[in-house]
Amino acid sequence: MIDFCIETPNLILRKFSEFDTKDIVHYSQQPKVAYWMADMVLNNEEKALSWISRVNKRFNSGEPFIILAIEHKIEGICIGVVGVIPKDELEDEFEIFYGISDEYQRKGYATEACKTFIQWVFENTKIKSLTAMVKPENIASKLAIEKFGFKYFDSKVIPYNGGVCKFNYYKLYNNSVK
């Protein structure tokens, strides 16, 4: 079923498959991933399979609604997620998000995946800008987002994980990608 693929030197960005369920459950429950992306924790394979089905049904590079698995080329396993979706809370701006399993963090994989994905989005969709929402205390993501070229604009309080949460609000315009 994998009919969409973006390759980088170390990674493959592709649609999720049912074979990713164990990997998704594993990385979504890693302490750092679960803390920073609490709304994306999947506690068992049944929930992961249901999530994969929903994500792949909504997959649309025209809208876009694109959520991709980050596969480690050598190990052949899903180590994370990268995506861009309409952000309803922000008047349908398009938000980029990503997460890498704790044991694969600090190895450059998030940078490799996101830079390639951002370039692909701007070259292959009609999106003129991307939004990134980062919890203020998440220094690593703040630094990564800024490394990708995003600029801080404001802070916003939006619904999140059954409550509300303050986020730093960043934007990246198509013409600013290097």
TrEMBL record:
PROSITE patterns: GNAT. Residues 11-175 form the N-acetyltransferase domain. One of its GO terms (molecular function) is acyltransferase activity, transferring groups other than amino-acyl groups. This is Protein N-acetyltransferase, RimJ/RimL family. Pfam families: Acetyltransf_3. Keywords: Transferase. InterPro entries: Acyl_CoA_acyltransferase, GNAT_dom, N-acetyltransferase.
